[in-house]
Amino acid sequence: MSQSVPPLSEPALSFRPADGTYYRACNLCEAICGLQITVAGGQVTDIRGDAADPLSRGHICPKGASIADLLADPDRLKKPLRREGETWHELEWDEALDYVAARLKEVRERHGADAVASYQGNPSVHNSGTLLTASSFLKALGSRNRFTATSIDQLPHHFAAAEMLGHPLLLPIPDIDRCDFFLMLGANPLTSNGSIMTAPGMRERLRAVRERGGRVVLLDPRRTESAQAATDFHFIRPGTDAFLLLALLNVIFAEGLVRLGHLGDVVDGLGDVRAACAPFTPEAVSGKTGVPADTIRQLARDYAAAERAVVYGRIGLSVQEFGGLCQWLVNVLNVVSGHFDTPGGAMFPRPAFDLLMRARPGETYHGRWHSRVRGLPEFDGELPNSAMTEEILTPGNGQVRALVTIAGNPVLSTTAGAALDRALETLDFMVSIDPYLNETTRHADVILPPAFGLETAHYDAIFHHFAVRNTARYNAPVFPVTPEQRFDHQIFMGLTERLGGKAGSGPDERLDLGLRHGPYQTSLADLQAQPHGVDYGPLKPCLPARLLTADQRLKLAPAPMLADLPRLQAALNAAPAPLVLIGRRQLRSNNSWMHNTPRLMRGPERCTLQLNPADAVGLEHGQAVAVRSRVGEVVAQLELTDEVMPGVACLPHGFGHGRRGVRLSVAQQHPGVSLNDLTDPERLDQLTGNAAVNGTPISIRAAAPASAPANGPASAPAGD
Ligand SMILES: Nc1nc2c(c(=O)[nH]1)N[C@H]1C(S)=C(S)[C@@H](COP(=O)(O)OP(=O)(O)OC[C@H]3O[C@@H](n4cnc5c(=O)[nH]c(N)nc54)[C@H](O)[C@@H]3O)O[C@H]1N2
Ligand SMILES: Nc1nc2c(c(=O)[nH]1)N[C@H]1C(S)=C(S)[C@@H](COP(=O)(O)OP(=O)(O)OC[C@H]3O[C@@H](n4cnc5c(=O)[nH]c(N)nc54)[C@H](O)[C@@H]3O)O[C@H]1N2
Ligand code: SF4
Ligand SMILES: [Mo]
Fold it and tell me: What pLDDT was estimated at residue 2?
């Protein structure tokens, strides 16, 4: 697939790339597609998939084809800004870094290190500079109030990996290219392009499964784009997957289908799992899940019998009240059916830059401290982001008085965003490291905007860990930066030094060192000489050698999981809410932050509330409806469709750009409303602390159309 790109209108680039063809990995999502970028007359004239990339093999999506637009965006910031009241003034970089460091120190000296909180968003892991240098800065800050987007995303995966395998990053990845039975829950890779499964071109990969006679089974409360690529699709009620997974296990144990294969000697806890799933027969869970008992029983048999099969559960299984149990049970299913660490099953990549190289066996990652107000447990150095607002607003020792946001937009991305929006106004100091003046950064005292995207060198230090094939790719920047610009890593290193911390070496030096000592003993120079990427072949079995538990055994039944089962059992008989809300990713979005790219925003209104006609008594397609939850209300346009199952409504996240003071001129023409003005910080997976944004109970009624965009959504008075 290729998409030709018209020349950018009057680019704001004073420094242009030389004419020619450039190869560069896309860093916008987890698929890390290779791109081929043509520059003529100093302008990008074409972007297409790099057919020679051994992982992405020419795949590209509309976002990748628009990646150069970000750099020409007139709203994008290049110099530090300082806010005085409602106006912003430019600062020189040294002046800005000095000022920020001084203010952070002041808060720390007066109120202690924990008074300075941080929030790191998703693009931090898509930028090698941020990924490799922000941690030194956070260490220099020395605060226990560290928040990230992880706890509204994949925390349950890390939790299960840490408990079962000994390290949060030892994540099993579906070996999709060799599997013949792909059982997928709570994921929509045809839209998201895959997550915790770096597998660009999922449409083709799933077609290949079908063409070799395999099956693709999908369970989701919405008949998604990915359902078109499935051989079997079933609706499942939001938040009930743990019951379904236990019932699958129940059948596997009851019918003697357990096979551990080469892991037979290293697995602990098989008996505990057998006991845990005993009460959950297909008949016992069918009413709760909405999946017929016969379907569940047959699914278990077919999956267990398949030679090369894998269960894969992604964000739909994580951002719910039983996220930790779900991700545990996904792993258990793969292990007990002999589909773990074997070709075509769940496998472990071996990246050239291996973040686990220096990991010590037997580390503890969970509950070493707790949040001040609600006592929520830390995981891997972070606290649940649903605790952020209360930590800012609740007076007392350790109250958060200053905030650093890094590549994040928590006002739109985290629970009860409207409340956080107001809470940010009460801070003594806030700094945002971000190229945009958006719903979150508008509250900052200072914005430090980095050079980003095609302006940066890129090696994907994270997503090769999640890739379905072992490859490596390093690319130099495509666009030169102007003397006034700084990279994320320069900002972090500058602040670290000013705070008296140790900045250490820059990202390229760190990468080079890691690559030299990594499994393929390569180097940055080697990779740079092969700009399409290097292929190290398919994934290989590696257990038990790669396990990082203290005794190098695989823990099938960790104590925290078993202890969480009574909570699940109690939910089995609880009456379900009549109507619950789930999210909806869209191909031309990237969470909250790519709505300012004109070519991605063409077409009809996207921020609609989908509802099954059976639930729309007295309401009409296209009308405005007020959607109310325990924490807020928004007004959205109603879209009636049987794509969503009865009892479920669906709204995309990442909209809500109508707030005052935002400088996103395109996004503001399509403001939409924020799903997270409805999600509830009290709804958590109690095991892991992950936010349960899906399954939020709501009610709907007819409403007057939403007020003019400039005034923002009705629910978001947003303290400005
Ligand atoms: N209800 C609901 N809520 C959700 C989700 C959901 O499914 N439903 N999904 C959740 C998930 S999975 C995630 S990951 C989060 C995302 O939550 P966040 O990470 O908080 O939000 P993003 O919208 O990704 O915002 C990214 C910010 O990074 C900036 N940025 C982009 N590139 C760079 C860079 O290179 N350097 C720096 N310094 N900044 C950069 C952008 O301008 C933007 O402000 O949202 C979560 N929220
Ligand atoms: N185009 C685009 N791509 C993206 C992003 C984006 O915003 N836009 N965001 C990126 C990020 S940060 C992430 S983390 C990944 C996420 O990647 P995916 O996990 O593939 O993301 P989603 O498309 O949200 O798919 C989740 C699915 O779970 C379903 N679901 C909701 N609740 C439940 C439930 O209780 N049970 C089950 N079984 N299913 C449920 C939803 O209907 C949805 O189809 O996508 C990444 N890629
Ligand atoms: S799928 Fe992801 S990595 Fe590939 S081009 Fe699109 S945004 Fe970039
Ligand atoms: Mo995410």
Answer: 37
Atom number in ligand 1 closest to CA 441: 44
Q: Which of 263, 189, 156, 198 is nearest to 553 (CA)?
A: 263
**How much of the chain, in percent, has pLDDT values that exceed 90?**
95
Ligand 3 closest atom vs CA 62: 6
- Separation of CA 239 and ligand 2 centre (Å): 14
Q: Is the pLDDT of residue 285 over 90?
A: yes
Q: Is residue 342 domain-shared with residue 209, that is, in the same domain?
A: yes
Give the structural domain span for 197: 172-347
| pLDDT tens-place string over residues 331-371 | 999 999 999 999 999 999 999 999 999 999 999 999 999 99
Residue 499, helix vs strand vs coil? coil
User: DSSP readout, 38-77?
Assistant: EEETTEEEEEEE-TT-TTTTT---HHHHTTTHHHH-TT--
Task: Name which residue sits closest to atom 4 of ligand 3, judged by CA.
Answer: 33
Question: At residue 536, what are phi and psi to the nearest 5 degrees?
Answer: -105, 10
Query: Quick one: average pLDDT of 315-326?
Result: 98
Cis peptide before 544 (omega within 30 of 0): yes
**Site to substitute for ligand 3 among 1, 188, 193, 600, most atoms within 8 A of C-beta:** 193
pLDDT in tens, 558-585: 999 999 999 999 999 999 999 999 999 9
Q: What CATH number does the domain containing 192 carry?
A: 3.40.228.10
In a domain? residue 537: no
Which atom from ligand 3 is nearest to the alpha carbon of 193?
1
Domain identity same for 216 and 286 = yes
Give the integer Cα–Cα distance in Å for 444 and 517: 41
267-294 average pLDDT score: 98
Return the higher-pLDDT residue of 637 and 718.
637
CA of 465 to the centre of ligand 3 (A): 17
Pairing of strands 20-25, 81-84: unpaired
Q: By the 8 A CB rule, do 297 and 291 touch?
A: no
